[in-house]
Amino acid sequence: STTPVKVAVTGAAGNVSYSLLFRIASGAIFGPDRPVELRLLEVTPALKALEGVVMELDDSAFPLLAGVETGDDPNKVFDGVNLALLVGAKPRGPGMERGDMLKDNGGIFAPQGKALNDVAADDVRVVVTGNPANTNALIAMNNAPDIPNERFSALTRLDHNRAIAQLAAKTGASVTEISNMTIWGNHSATQYPDLFHAKVKGQVAAEAVGDQAWIEDTYIPTVAKRGAAIIDARGASSAASAAAATIDHARDWFAGTAQGDWTSMAVPSDGSYGVAEGLISSFPVTTKDGDYEIVQGLEIDDFSRGKIDASVQELTEERDTVRGLGLI
Ligand code: NAX
């Protein structure tokens, strides 16, 4: 199609978006033949900085960029959008109570969910990158009753990509020789990167590694705490890799996962693998044409079961908190 696809990005003047927008405009999600129109949402005080970003988008003369609109009103910016990348959020700062953080995010994701419900295109797909991503997606989804739940997702692709990179480094394989990686649960320190279904050159990764202690004591914490390691080294949180992961997530949702492989997306649970229905939890999924299916039938041993349950427990607590706050 030569009709531009309308892509909304929130937090458009922030760090992740500074990498994300230029890749979207270059065709990284929808390919080299599909024009894109950007709809950029920011809070009022950031609109001036956003103007500067738009000047740089203009200056890039992207052949596929059919238009850019900006604003601070989601009811206008989201009008007719086919894809909404919700990046702007209120992550937990030092000394902040979790309840306050969830409440602040409710103030962002409840109205954005409502606005998407009212003005987005009928085929809208939503990806939440802004933290706490799973529960922010839960809030948006529950405030958009007319949009099918399966259109809402949260980003665990950065964790997935980190899990591939760490496994590649350990085994000497290239990232392209690793398949069937899964992140289960929450995009948080409780996430579970699963080496019992991942494969290295076709061999089960846990067997290829052959060292359960390394998996438990080094691999899982390294992947789960990678965000903190980046902050420690850079003095700023991951931005370019988060943007790359957001692109991977959205591109694969439409373009599809490779035959025999899958990816990780946090999506509303249908009860698969004992995850309570309705929680937005990360699963192995196959994708095609903007739809996904949770991979079924994987055997979960006791070790994996404990890890998945612990992360899902955290999601349950977050859900109960936002329910108590009347946000869902
Ligand atoms: P920045 O603080 O640089 O940018 C966030 C932007 O969002 C700001 O410009 C702010 O004005 C805007 N914003 C706030 N409320 C808004 C609203 N109601 N509507 C529109 N815009 C709004 O953060 P950045 O480094 O870009 O990170 C963005 C988000 O991604 C954060 O929540 C962060 O925690 C999250 N991350 C998620 C990751 C993931 O894997 N899921 C990894 C990277 C990243 O840390």
UniProtKB/TrEMBL annotation:
Which stretches make up the Lactate/malate dehydrogenase N-terminal domain?
Answer: 5-150
UniProt keyword Cytoplasm, yes or no = no
InterPro entries in the record, alphabetically? L-lactate/malate_DH, Lactate/malate_DH_C, Lactate/malate_DH_N, Lactate_DH/Glyco_Ohase_4_C, Malate_DH_AS, Malate_DH_type2, NAD(P)-bd_dom_sf
GO biological process: any one?
tricarboxylic acid cycle
Which sites are catalytic? 187
Enzyme class, UniProt record, top EC level: oxidoreductase
Q: Which HAMAP family match?
A: Malate_dehydrog_2
Give the EC number(s) under which this enzyme is classified.
1.1.1.37
Write out the residues that bind NAD(+): 11-17, 105, 112, 129-131
Q: Where does substrate bind?
A: 92, 98, 131, 162
Name-wise, this protein is Malate dehydrogenase
Which source organism does the UniProt entry give?
Barrientosiimonas humi
